[in-house]
Amino acid sequence: MKQQASQNAARSHLRCLKRPQPPDHKFVLARLKKLITELKARVEEPRST
């Protein structure tokens, strides 16, 4: 039952990806900011190698 629901979710997600609609700019900017902050944190961490 749960598997079927997840499959449906994946299918609808794929459909959304295929649909040629412009992305929500606020959402994209938020993702970019998050990625940049994560990268900065990773770079500032002392290398453990």
Question: What percentage of residues falls in helices of 4 or more residues?
Answer: over 70%
Sum up the overall morphology in one term: flat
Oligomer: single chain
Quote the beta fraction: under 5%
Class from helix and strand fractions: mainly alpha
Number of strands: 0
Q: Could you name the ranges where pLDDT drops below 50 across 5 or more consecutive residues?
A: none
End-to-end Cα distance:
45 Å
Count, helices: 2
Supply Rg: 17 Å
Give average pLDDT, whole number: 77
Order of helices and strands: HH
Largest sheet, in brief, is: none
Keywords:
49 residues, 2 helices, 76% helix, mainly alpha
Question: How do the strands and helices of this protein lay out in sequence?
Answer:
Blueprint: H1 2-18, H2 25-44
Describe, in plain words, how this protein is organized in 3D.
It is a single chain. The chain is an all-alpha fold and 49 residues long. It has a domain at 22-49. The protein is built from two helices and no strands. The relative contact order is 0.07.
Would you summarize the structure shown here?
The chain is mainly α and 49 residues long. The chain is built from 2 helices and no strands. The chain is 76% helix and 0% strand.
